[in-house]
Amino acid sequence: MTSPAMTLQSNRSLLEIDRDHLIHPVTSFRGHETHGAILLESGKGMWLKDREGRDLLDAFAGLWCVNVGYGQDSIVEAAADQMRRLPYATGYFHFGSEPAVRLAQRLVELSPEGLDHVYFTLGGSDAVDSAIRYITHYYNAIGKPAKKQCIALERGYHGSSTTGAGLTALANFHRGFDLPLRWQHHIPSPYPYRSELEGDDAAIIARSVQQLRDKVAELGADNVAAFFCEPIQGSGGVIVPPVGWLKAMRAACTELDILLVADEVITAFGRTGPMFACEAEGMTPDLMTLAKGLTAGYVPMGAVLMSDKVYQGIADGAAADIVIGHGATYSGHPVSAAVGLEVLRLYTKGGILANGQRVGTRFAAGLAGIADHPMVGDTRGRGLLGAIELVANKGHKTRFDPALKLADRLFERGYRNGVIFRAFADNIIGLAPALCASDGEMDMIFARIRNTLDDLLEEADIRAAVG
Ligand code: PLP
């Protein structure tokens, strides 16, 4: 317990103040009191510097968001210009601002054909929330009020709001929060490495489609509103479904008369190669949620893209003078929108998307190259989104004993070796480097990860567990 006077003492270190007062997202309260934070000081391109002056190669683009790299001056200028001219404009009461309008136009131009309407949010969680609210409104408006049940994938992540965390299927987001909600359901993830069907893509896809059909039949087709999925599951461990899975799920949703929501919060903006992951399969969802790469993490912003069918359903269903009661003070914030426009310019005219596609080949080679390490069971990825799954026994795909706390040790070792990645609970290394990386930086990421794994293998308990 710290007194207010103590809080104001200037000789308290920032780390102590952080420990005593700042609640960190997705962090163990007690664990954080012991371990403390790594305070970051500055960034340039692919590199971060912490307060101790340590240079860190960021193989995770912050939190899979800083896709254009750190220190892009043109983004800073765009934000500053807009702040000087007009720092805020509400979107309520028919007001608006040019950057929000232009950004909506640009997203409609760039996104799969048919997503014609854009609602701006503050990030990904409220994009998912907004999608659910609009879907609920849509089905009430078109006279199908029973259609309220939503289905998502096990190991999926859809944000941290109550509705989004309920659609998420990761234990930490449910435990202690009384989730999922009663209208939220999950079907198995198409996880090739952990499937007995591994190697038979067609069978994995067919089974996934059947699992969706079975769940809809169980709930009653007239009661099901939508299927939510990430084209590649991110926080669940970068699970890459077989090519064709997304298109097959789209066809199944159409046949079952349920909406498909593609949660592209991670996968959009070149992360998997094309501008949007849906594009690779020529697939148009009914709604698409975006955030992260939209403003490359420089300022908060997300969006929901909506098909004309859903938009018109809502519009026709409400009397002309009835307001659709969904909105936020900062929806379409002009500074965020100005940043978004500049970020989109950097992806396209600035060549960052093309660089990401080029260096993606090097990334794939890095993943393939590390597969021979004794601790590596699986490597997978698409574009610049990838994972290295560690196992105690390659032949049997045996997971490490949780008592080894390998994920924590992995992260800590990587940090000491100057590389930042995500270490998921199942000892899966998540990688999502910025699209501006050079070939040399890409090779350095994998060299540092290999050193990290070698260091761990020298520790007696881990060496004893491998084999
Ligand atoms: N959806 C997906 C697929 C995500 O990966 C995330 C965040 O990682 C979210 C939604 C939530 O976004 P935010 O953290 O911006 O609220």
Automatic annotation (TrEMBL):
PROSITE patterns for the chain: AA_TRANSFER_CLASS_3
InterPro entries: Aminotrans_3 (IPR005814), Aminotrans_3_PPA_site (IPR049704), PyrdxlP-dep_Trfase (IPR015424), PyrdxlP-dep_Trfase_major (IPR015421), PyrdxlP-dep_Trfase_small (IPR015422)
Domain of life: Bacteria
Keyword Transferase in annotation: yes
Keywords: Aminotransferase, Pyridoxal phosphate, Transferase
Cofactor annotation: pyridoxal 5'-phosphate
GO terms of molecular function: pyridoxal phosphate binding; transaminase activity
Signal peptide: none
Keyword Transferase on entry: yes
Any Gene Ontology CC annotation: cytosol
Family affiliation: Belongs to the class-III pyridoxal-phosphate-dependent aminotransferase family.
Record-given protein name: Aspartate aminotransferase family protein
Lineage start: Bacteria, Pseudomonadati, Pseudomonadota, Alphaproteobacteria, Sphingomonadales
